Amino acid sequence: MMKKIAVVEDEIYMREELCRMLEKAGYTPAALDSFQNAVETLTALSPDLVVLDLNLPGISGFQICRDLKQKTAIPVLVLTSRDQMQDELHALELGADEFLTKPCRRERLLARISNILKRFEGRTNLLEGADFLLDRTTYTIFIHNTSAVLPKNQGKLLEVLLRARDRTVTARELAMALWGTDEFIDENALQVNMTRLKKTMAGLGTVQKVETLRGQGYRLERGGQP
After folding, report:
1. Which of 49, 58, 146, 190 has the largest count of CB atoms under 10 Å?
2. pTM of the full structure
3. Which pLDDT belongs to residue 226?
4. Counting Cβ atoms within 10 Å, is residue 31 exposed (0-12), middle (13-18) or buried (19+)?
5. pLDDT tens digit sequence for 5-26
6. The pLDDT of residue 224 is above 60
């Protein structure tokens, strides 16, 4: 199966050239030409890699990199005309996996893309907790050299909580994840599923626990000490 690579570049000629190059190299390119909702678009596309420019109209590539990395495990290769060391360090601090400056030789770019894809083989399906990983396709949790498959509803809840990081997730968001609608929120059914998830995590000995914030929703503790 061909790897899908998203191209986030506002300069039309460069965007088209990158897409042609990627296609010739055996990849499936997906170009964005609108950037305000780039993170939502990229999350929905779920590419194997994002090639990201920093100088974009209306939004900074730094912001896209940070927000995307907070929500997903998709690798990011920054390709930009900005060649200051501070820009490279800042991008890497925000989670970028590679930083190249334009103009860049085709062979170098393709080699870096290939290396990143090899490093991340299979990891795009994994979400990281404080001391565990969750495979969001099978809801398998990997912890302390062992693994367990979570029931579907528990897996969905944990996935949403992990994607939110430190943010509090509302009952409405969780209802959408479980039942595909927020028109009617069955608070009791939600609480039952959340109680089961808490019990499962306690049984597995995870450092992080699910916190209930009365009247607000749920979130994962930041980790650290149990």
Report:
1. 49
2. 0.59
3. 36
4. middle
5. 999 999 999 999 999 999 999 9
6. no
